[in-house]
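Late entry, evening session. Most of the bench is empty. Finally got around to the prediction I had been postponing all week. Sequence below, unchanged from the version circulated by S.P.
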Amino acid sequence: MSKILIVDDKEANRYLLQTILTAAGHATRDAANGAEALESARRERPDLIISDILMPQIDGFALCRECKRDETLRDIPFIFYTATYTDPRDRDFGLQLGAARFVVKPMEAEDLSAIIEEVLKEHAQGKSSASVVPAEDEAAIYRLYNEALIRKLEDKMLALEKEIAERRQAEKLLQKLASAVEQAADPIFITDAAGVIEFINPAFERLTGYAKNEVLGNTPRLLKSGAQDDAFYKKLWQVILSGKNFKAELINRKKNGERYNVQQTITPIRDERGVITHFISTCKDMTERRQAEEQINFQAHLLSVVGNAVIATDMQGQVTYWNPAAEKLYGWSAGEALGRQIVELTPANQTREQAQEIMSQLAQGRSWSGEFTVRRKDGSEFPAFVFDTPIVDADGRLTGIIGVSYDVSAHAQAEQQIKRRVIELEALYQSGIAFSQTFDPKEVGGKIIEVLSGRLEWHHAAVRVRRGESREVELLAFSHTNEAEDRARLQSSITQVGQGIVGWVIENGKSVRSGDLSGDPRYTETYAGMRSGLYVPIRIRDKIIGCISAESEAADAFTEADERLLSTLAAQAAAALESARLFQNLQGELTARRAAEEKLRALNVELEKRIEERTADLRQLNNELERALRIKDEFLANMSHELRTPLNAIIGLSESLIEQTVGALNERQAKYVGTIGESGQHLLYLINDILDLAKIEAGQVTLSREKVNISDVCQSSLRMIKQLALKKRLDVRFEMDVDPGMIWADERRLKQMIVNLLSNAVKFTPEGGSLGLQAHGDRENNSIKFVVWDMGIGIAEENLTRLFQPFVQLDSHLTRKEGGTGLGLALVAKMAFLHGGSVSVESQLGRGSRFTITLPWESAFNTGSLEGRLTTAPVEEAGMEEQVVLLADDTENVILLFKDYLERAGYRVVVARNGVEAVTLAESLRPSLILMDVQMPVMDGMEAARNIRRIPALQHTPIIALTALAMKGDRERCLKAGMNDYLSKPVNLKTLLEMVRNHLSGSAEESRS
C-alpha cells in the first residue's frame, strides 16, 4: 500500500482525490499549500506527491523545484494535477522541473488511478523518465517560471473579470429565480438536511392554509394525512439521502383538515464538497386532476357496464372504442374490432345515401338516430336502433363519432304481444258486457262462441257443462254450419265425465293444449282430420262445471296466449253461469216462498189462537204451581213441627230412662231404652237432612258467610266422629298445609259437609282399617281442597255418577249392613255448590275412596266483607270495545263474583237466573259469549245450550260451561250438548278471563276470515 501526499488549496479537491486514492488501496495525507507539503514530506517521507499548481505561499512549481533540490526528497515521484495551467508550455515547464507526469483536470477516476499506478511502478523499477533542469540553467528556469506565472496571473485576472461579470449576471438570474419562486403558481418549500422548513412561497400558503410563521422551523410532518404509511416515508428519505430526486403523488392534509392530492418532487442540494445541505420540494396540486380522472374513470366504467353497445370511430370510420355490450351484441371482441372499419363489423343494409345523410347531420354538430338492420360476426342479422353523436375538439372540429345501439327485435315482439293483448282485452270486455245481460245458460254459451269467432284459428268450438251433480255432460253451445248435424255429432262424441279430452279436463280441472291430437290417447274424434285442440275447464271455486273446447285442422294452431284468453273467458263464463243458476234457483225459491208465506199466514192465525189457549192454560198451571209450592212449604213446616214434637218426647224420655231418674232398669231394659234413643236421634238426623235438601231445592237456604279457620273446622269435624271411629278401632289421620289460613264460608254448613264425608268413611271402613282428612290450599288457583279418604270397600266405576243423587243407595253388602237414606252425599254436593265449589270422588272396589270438596279460597290477609272484596278486586283492564257476556247462574254469590270481575275487565254482563231466561236473553241480545251454569231451576244448562244452538244466529256463539259437576264424563256431556268449553267450580278468575278472551278472539278471527 503506497503513501501519497495530496497538495491542493481547495478542500473539495483534496476530498475527491482522497476518495479516489483510498478506493484504489492507497494511504493518503493532504496539505493546503506548498509550505505545508514540504514540512509534511520532510516529517514523513511519502511514496508519491500529487499537487495542484496555483496555491498560496509556495505554488506547485516552487514545491516541485524545492523537492528536487532536497537530497532526501529528490527521488520522490511528483505529479502535477491542475485545471489552471493547461498550456503545452506549462506542461513542458513542469516536466523540466522534474515532474513525472503533468495531468489536466478533470480526469476520470479510473484514468487518474491508472497514471498513479504507472508512475509508482516506473519508480519501483528505476525507470523514471522525468528530466531535471541543470543547476547552471537555474536563472533560465526562473525566467521561464516568471513568464509562466505572469502569464497565468494575466489569465487569472481575465478569468476573475469574467467571473465577476458572470456572478453579477448570476445574481440577476438569482433575483429573477427568487421572484419566479415567490410568484410561482405551484407550492415550493425548502428544508435543511434534517427536514426543517426554511422557506415557503405564497402558493404553499394558499394551498395548505398555513401562514409562513406557522410553517418555518417546523417539518413537513404537519401536512401528513395518514394516507401514506411509515414505509412510504422511510423509502422517501432513503432516496433523497442517496442524492437522487424523489417524485410521487401524496395525499396531504390542509390546516382545516381537508385532504388534497399533490404531485411532489424533492431534489437534494449539495455544497461545493458534494455534501447535501438542503432539499427543495416543488408541488403540483392534483386534486382537480384527480377528480377529473375519477370522473373519466367513472364514465369509462359506465360505458363498460352499460347494457347498450357503445362504439366510437374516428373520421376515417376506424373503431377506436368498443365496450363489452358491443362485444356481446355483435359477437366481435374489442381486440378484433379496434382499428377496423365500422362498415366491416355491423351494417347490413345501410345505403350510401343513408351514410351520407348521417355524416352530413353529424358534421353540423347534430346527433342522428334511426333504425336499420345490422349484422353479427356469425352473419346473422337483426333490427337495431342506433343513436350517433359527433365528437368535437376544443376548436369545434369533428374528430370522431360515438354511437349507441341496441337490439329492438324484442321490442318488435313486444309490440305484437301488446296488439294481441289489446285484441284479447277487447274480447274480454265484450264478453263481460254480454254475460251481464243474460241469465240463460244457453245464451251464456252462445256469447262465448260469438266472442271467440274470428280470434282463434279453429275448425269448431263448443261449450259443455255437467248436468247438476251427475257425471253426464251436456252440450251447451257450439259453432256450426249445419246445426242439427253438428249438434248430434258433438253431443254424441262426449256424454260422460272422463270421456275424451273434454271429459278428462272436467274430471281433473286442468287445461290441455295439444298440437298433435292423434298422439293423445285421451282424444275422442269429433271431426275427421282434427290435428290441434285447446281445452279449458270452467271452474266455480273448487268445483269444475264444464269445459270450453276449440279444435283445428292445422298443427300447433293454438298458442299460450290463446290458452290465456280462453282461461280468462272461462272464468267470466263460470261467474255468468253461476249467476244464471242462482237466478233460476232464486226464481224457484221466490215462488216457493210465496206459497210458504201464504201457508205461514194461515198457520200464524191458528198459532195465535193456540197461543192464547196455551197462555190461559199456563196461567192456570202457574197458579196451581204457586198453590202447590205454598202447600209444600206449609207441609214442610207442619211436618217439621209434627215430627219433631213426638221425637222430642221419644228422645227426652229415653235419655231420662237411661239416666234412671224414675227408677232402676235391668240390663235388658237399659239396652232397649238405648236402642230407642239411638233410633230417635237417627230419625231426627234423617228428618233434618230431608228438610235441608227440600229447602235447598226450593232455594230457601242462604249461607251465612264469615271468616272460618280451616284448622279449627277440621279438628272439630274429626272430634265429632271420634267415638264412632274408636268403636271400630280405626286409625284416623289428619294432614294440613303449614299455614292454610282462613276462608270465607258458612262454618256450620262446611262442618256438616266434612262430617258427612267422615261419617261415611267410618261407616264403610272395616274394623281395624284407616281413614283420614287432608286440607290443602292452592294459592295460584285460589282454591282449597278438603279430601276425605278411606281404605274401605270402595265403589264400582259404573256407580260413581249416581253417588250425589238424593235417595240413592248403592247395592252392596256393606251398604245394606250399615243402612242409610242416601241423602248425605246429595247434601254435600248441594252445599258445595252453594259455596261456589264442587265435590268429586275417586274410588276402586276393595281399595277405598277419596272424596274431595273444592271451595274458593281467600287468604287470611284479605279482610272485610265478601261483597266488599268482590267489588274491589283488582282486574287487568281489557282495553277492548264493549262486548256482551251472558251469565246464566242461580247462585247470587257466584253472580256477584263473576259479574263484577268481568265488568271490570271491560265486558258488559247480562244475568239470567235459569235456563229459560238464558235462551230468551240469548236470542234477543245476541251476546258475544255465554257462561252457562249446568244445575239451574226451571231448565238446566245443558237443555238451555241445546235450545240456543237451534237458533241460527247463535250457532257459533261460544258457550262455556261453569259447573260443580266434576265427575268423569261431565265435560264430554257438556260439549255434546253444544258447549265449547268447560270449567269446574270453584273457578280461578284469571283462568276464566283468559278462556273468555281466547274464545272471543277466536270468534273475531273466524268472522274476519
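Two things to note before I forget:
The chain has a mean pLDDT of 79.
The first strand starts at residue 3 and ends at 7.
Will write this up properly tomorrow.
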